[in-house]
Amino acid sequence: MSASNFDLASSILRRLLDHWRALPAGVAGLPAPRALDPVESPSALGAVTLVDVEGVPPDCEFRFARDGSWQVKRYGFDMTGKTLAEFPEPETRASIRQSYMEVGRARQPIARVRDLMLDGRPRRDGTLLLPFGAAGRVTRLAVALDFESGSA
Predict the structure, then answer these.
(1) What's the rounded mean pLDDT across residues 73-102?
(2) Tens digits of per-residue pLDDT, 109-127?
(3) The dihedral sign for the CA sequence 141, 95, 61, 4
(4) How high is the pLDDT of residue 152?
(5) Fewest 10 Å CB contacts: which of 10, 19, 23, 145?
């Protein structure tokens, strides 16, 4: 579901989406990959993971450029520098890949509530995926989670 089609319940995710919408569109019709300014959205800083899209979907890999500190603390592992193929939970990895591919194809923000199984425990979070682009394609994703609201 596109984030533009409904109101986000999470104030953190809503502010981040507003910041993304205010960024200038580049050649790809999307904000530039390095356009996200943490100073503009400091409340979301620890909630944001930056993911580089290597290659062209569907034949691409996703590499975690920076894993959000809140996510590292919550889930107990840091994906910084690793690829999605190295994500420890196979079922969750497949779900994440599907979401990343979806936002890459749509070239629009996507928000949803996710129910995940990590470390054998069920987890729920509100998730916002934001595309950034260059060279006519999505080259980076900002993935923000709000554990407190549990809703997008």
Answers:
(1) 91
(2) 999 887 766 667 777 778 8
(3) negative
(4) 46
(5) 23
